[in-house]
Amino acid sequence: MAPAVGVPVLKLGLLAVKQIAKPIANRAKAAAKESAFFKAFVVSLGRGLHRLSIQMTRLADGKLQASARFPDRYGAPRCLAGSGRTIPPGVADAHSLRSDAI
Questions:
Q1: What share of the chain is helix, strand, coil (3-state, %, to 5)?
Q2: What is the mean pLDDT of each successive set of 10 residues along the chain, which is 102 residues long?
Q3: What is the four-CA torsion angle of 85, 89, 90, 93, rounded to 10 degrees?
Q4: If you count DSSP H runs as helices and E runs as strands, how many of each does the chain have, helices first?
Q5: Whether the Cβ atoms of residue 66 and residue 51 lie closer than 8 Å to each other
Q6: Does pTM surpass 0.85?
């Protein structure tokens, strides 16, 4: 009869752990909401996961990786301020794109 007694004791033990963990988790969540470091870490992690997801989708579709097409850090072309035009990879600066540049 030992297994029959063990099940209720196990349930009570798990309930106790759950009850103790709730206030600890709430304190951790409150501290995380106010922490600039934690926010920066989570944002960075989210961006990294998004880039990974996009690259995996592109590879599955048989296309180039985004970072291979655009060597910019975030996988996107750089944009000229206010012009709406993008700078192609390999162009050093906006001056090179002017029509009168020699």
A1: 65, 5, 30
A2: 73 93 92 88 92 90 64 52 56 55 50
A3: 30
A4: 3, 2
A5: yes
A6: no
